Amino acid sequence: MTSEITLFVNPTAGRGRGAHAAQPAASAVRAAGFSVRTILGADAEDALTRARAAVADGTGALVAVGGDGMANLALQAVAGTGTPFGLVAVGTGNDLARALGLPVRDPAAAGRVIADALKGGRLRDIDLGRVDDRWFGTVLASGFDSRVNDRGNRMRWPSGRLKYDLAMLAELASFRPFPYRVTLDDGEAMEVEATLVAVGNGSSYGGGMRICPGADLTDGLFDVTLVGDCSRRTLLRVFPAVYRGRHVDHPKVTVVRAAKVEVDAAGITGYADGEPLGPLPLTARCVRGAVRVVGP
């Protein structure tokens, strides 16, 4: 393995924490004897082009510095290549970092963990989800949660998490279940009225909401959480339990496992790792051992 490590930096992550995080992370990696190259892109497309070039040039690891969106962008560059992937998580959600057992919002600690793991050869292969040519590490969300994302992304004020809290309240006011068609592997399609359908490679989204609490990054299967036709009152009662993963005990919630999931519902956008994939229908495939990750 080359001693050069590439930091893939989003300077705007976490209201500017990405730019401030790069220096302590780089210092920790250099202190372990590695050289560091930093990539900044003019935009997402330019950044991804640069990251793919670094991987093609044989970088020792690609380390994303930012939030889940930056991690998702880095996955597009490293998936299927064998190049180790690391993550210095300084965004708002940081769900992939939690799934990997990496420090959150402590760039120096994350840099030390990554450097120690690279020196000690502590690398492991984990699964990724794939929709067409797009990879994702955590959860493909659709339904009530994706409608909240849609609304929040349209709002110009306020900023940060408060925007999505307000978007959730607005969506609750017009809440209704959606008619879904869900097909697992190549079996018969299920026609269901559902509040949301979440396809989990990882267990959480939205900054620790454990929507698919039993998801295993190494089993070659998605955990698919279907929240049924809840009333507004039931949804409000069940929602807090998501942070502990206890919602799966509710009779309106069903969890199934599959390696391939097709999800279809009219007027619904799919989001993966918090990034929009486009309108349903979408077909996700779990690809076993798709990326090599650095960490504990």
UniProtKB/TrEMBL annotation:
<dbReference type="InterPro" id="IPR017438">
    <property type="entry name" value="ATP-NAD_kinase_N"/>
</dbReference>
<dbReference type="GO" id="GO:0008654">
    <property type="term" value="P:phospholipid biosynthetic process"/>
</dbReference>
<keyword id="KW-0460">Magnesium</keyword>
<dbReference type="Pfam" id="PF19279">
    <property type="entry name" value="YegS_C"/>
</dbReference>
<dbReference type="InterPro" id="IPR050187">
    <property type="entry name" value="Lipid_Phosphate_FormReg"/>
</dbReference>
<dbReference type="GO" id="GO:0005886">
    <property type="term" value="C:plasma membrane"/>
</dbReference>
<dbReference type="GO" id="GO:0004143">
    <property type="term" value="F:ATP-dependent diacylglycerol kinase activity"/>
</dbReference>
<comment type="similarity">
    <text>Belongs to the diacylglycerol/lipid kinase family.</text>
</comment>
<keyword id="KW-0808">Transferase</keyword>
<protein>
    <submittedName>
        <fullName>Sphingosine kinase</fullName>
    </submittedName>
</protein>
<keyword id="KW-0547">Nucleotide-binding</keyword>
<dbReference type="InterPro" id="IPR016064">
    <property type="entry name" value="NAD/diacylglycerol_kinase_sf"/>
</dbReference>
<keyword id="KW-0067">ATP-binding</keyword>
<dbReference type="InterPro" id="IPR005218">
    <property type="entry name" value="Diacylglycerol/lipid_kinase"/>
</dbReference>
<dbReference type="InterPro" id="IPR045540">
    <property type="entry name" value="YegS/DAGK_C"/>
</dbReference>
<keyword id="KW-0479">Metal-binding</keyword>
<dbReference type="Pfam" id="PF00781">
    <property type="entry name" value="DAGK_cat"/>
</dbReference>
<keyword id="KW-0444">Lipid biosynthesis</keyword>
<keyword id="KW-0594">Phospholipid biosynthesis</keyword>
<keyword id="KW-0443">Lipid metabolism</keyword>
<dbReference type="GO" id="GO:0046872">
    <property type="term" value="F:metal ion binding"/>
</dbReference>
<keyword id="KW-0418">Kinase</keyword>
<feature type="domain" description="DAGKc">
    <location>
        <begin position="1"/>
        <end position="135"/>
    </location>
</feature>
<dbReference type="GO" id="GO:0005524">
    <property type="term" value="F:ATP binding"/>
</dbReference>
<keyword id="KW-1208">Phospholipid metabolism</keyword>
<dbReference type="InterPro" id="IPR001206">
    <property type="entry name" value="Diacylglycerol_kinase_cat_dom"/>
</dbReference>
